[in-house]
Specification:
Beta-Lactamase, Heat Shock Protein 90, 15 helices
Length: 537
């Protein structure tokens, strides 16, 4: 059976130490490559040689006996030659056959003698942080503009796919370059001095606003017109500069074509021998084209202005919202290293919980970004299905329970609703999570958030009332715009996307949203959504 495809799959595909052991003799029969490397051998043959010292721990006979009698065994052991501390698990491949081989797995534990439970919690927190980081990397990697990150000296430390494509470099090719290589030399302009000036006083800025036309230089030496915006961040007291690059070749060509057309019209007017009919036809044709170009340029300018405003809001918000949880993660990770003693477990757990909360915060921010992207790309559609409203409300309240401040509570009130209705449960749940999260976040301790639901005439009415800060009338008209945040909550964390997502999801469900609020007296949000009711057989 050792040559069977299933046994090979178990040993070759797992990233952890895995092997097979003889339950009678206690010797190892097979070891995967991860196990060979963990135990410090060069090959499986060397490790399994008859004259090789056994790498198994002293507890091995007792674990074998336990696995034979109970069907499994698990213990924290220390391997002799390698000194690796790990969690060892034994499972029989065929429990009914006492001679069947045992599956052996080893999972190394964190250094410093951490207990198993702590190691697992830390491992989960690190995995969640890795997932969050991966999603953020995906957002940057697939952006439709070039994004380049360099250090204080101008050395490029990160660049996305679009940046490599714009500047004609192979994948990862920009990581061996200096930012100066992407800027063509120009008389009277010293790019190094400009970079040093920015390092001395870093600010979020758009270079084109005061430096005129800019050009980028490709790997083959050719140049192309660009628009560049700069932002920055600090990591471990080191300054990093982020450049957002847009290729404006198409816009430049359209402008040049318009200028050429104007010059052609001027030449026609200056030529006394040109026939009046041809001149009139040319002028009418040119005017028609100019009107079309004017409308196109007006639309392009409006879109560009909106994009610039959104980009500035995004940079400002992301710089603040990402920096705070990432700083908390780095600080807590550093402090954990300073508590190696067993009696300091409580301090370690507090910092691990802080890491977990920061990672969850980053996940929530990225989820909002991804939700906006899917909505605007038309990838979100309402799919009605049977749902039990009372169960959905109860589950949603449990989801946001961890956001409650001391003394806060949610009071549900469901009236005259059928046991089951037909709606998109996923969209409705996301709407409720956003509204309840906002109500809890912007309300004080010992406050009450009320959730009312009523069904009548095929319409579901949901109303969330809080006793929070409230919103001014001036700000209420902008609440459903992307990245907008009311001035009354500007000192609290948030992306300004929650109500925008709620409004778009309500549109997908065919419903409407109404918001009533007064400063210092709380906010009430009312959703009216049509539903279907199907009788059950």
């Amino acid at each position: 059976m050792f040559s069977h495809a299933l046994a090979d799959l178990l040993l070759s595909q797992t990233p952890d130490f895995a092997g097979l052991a003889d339950p009678v003799t206690g010797r190892l029969l097979r070891i995967n490559q991860a196990g060979v490397e963990l135990l410090g051998y060069t090959s499986e043959a060397e490790l399994l040689a008859a004259d090789a010292p056994s790498p198994l721990p002293p507890e091995w006979p007792a674990l074998l006996a336990e696995a034979r009698s109970t069907g499994s065994a698990e213990s924290v052991v220390q391997l002799g030659a390698s000194g690796v501390r790990a969690r060892l698990t034994l499972l029989p491949l065929a429990p009914a056959d006492p001679a069947a081989p045992l599956l052996l797995r080893l999972q190394p534990l964190p250094s410093g003698g951490c207990p198993v439970a702590e190691g697992l919690r830390l491992q989960r927190a690190e995995q969640a942080l890795a997932n969050s980081h991966g999603r953020f990397e995906a957002v940057v990697s697939h952006a439709t503009i070039g994004i380049i990150v360099c250090n204080r000296a101008g050395d490029i430390v990160s660049a996305n796919h679009m940046a490599h494509q714009q500047f004609g470099y192979p994948p990862e090719g920009l990581l061996r370059a200096n930012i100066d290589a992407l800027v063509p030399p120009a008389p009277g302009r010293n790019h190094q001095q400009l970079r040093e000036s920015f390092n001395a006083d870093p600010q979020v800025r758009a270079l084109n606003s005061h430096r005129g036309d800019l050009q980028g230089q490709r790997a083959d030496g050719s140049v192309f017109p660009v628009e560049v915006s700069l932002s920055y961040f600090y990591q471990e007291n080191e300054l990093y500069v982020v450049s957002y690059v847009i290729d404006i070749t198409d816009k430049r060509q359209a402008r040049e074509a318009l200028v050429a057309e104007r010059l052609r019209v001027e030449r026609l007017n200056a030529d006394p021998e040109q026939k009046v009919a041809d001149r009139t036809h040319a002028l009418l044709s040119t005017l028609e084209q100019l009107e079309q170009r004017k409308d196109e340029l007006a639309k392009a300018l409006q879109a560009e202005q909106e994009l610039g405003e959104l980009k500035s809001r995004f940079v400002s918000m992301a710089s603040h919202e990402f920096r705070t949880p990432l700083t908390a993660v780095l600080t807590s990770a550093s402090l954990i290293e300073q508590y190696p003693a067993g009696e300091q477990q409580g301090k370690r757990l507090r910092h691990i919980e802080r890491i977990r909360q920061s990672v969850n915060h980053l996940n929530d921010i990225l989820e909002e970004f991804l939700s906006v992207g899917r909505i605007e790309e038309g990838k979100v559609a309402a799919r009605a299905a049977r749902l039990e409203l009372a169960e959905l409300v109860r589950d949603t309240m449990l989801d946001v329970q961890g956001l409650c401040k001391p003394g806060q509570r949610i009071e549900p009130d469901l009236q005259a609703c059928p046991s089951a209705i037909w709606l998109d449960a996923s969209l409705l749940r996301k709407i409720l999570v956003n509204l309840l999260s906002n109500a809890l976040k912007y309300s004080g301790d010992d406050s009450v958030v009320r959730l009312h639901a009523a069904c009548a005439g095929g319409w579901l009415t949901l109303r969330v009332e809080d006793e929070g800060l409230g919103i001014s009338e001036e700000d209420q008209q902008h609440l459903f715009e992307r990245f907008f945040r009311a001035r009354s909550v500007s000192n609290l964390p948030g992306t300004g996307l929650g109500l925008y997502i709620v409004g778009r999801y309500a549109e997908l469900l065919g419903g409407t949203v109404d918001l009533q609020s007064q400063l210092g007296q709380g906010t009430t949000v009312t959703l009216t959504i049509p539903y279907e009711s199907h009788s059950t057989d």
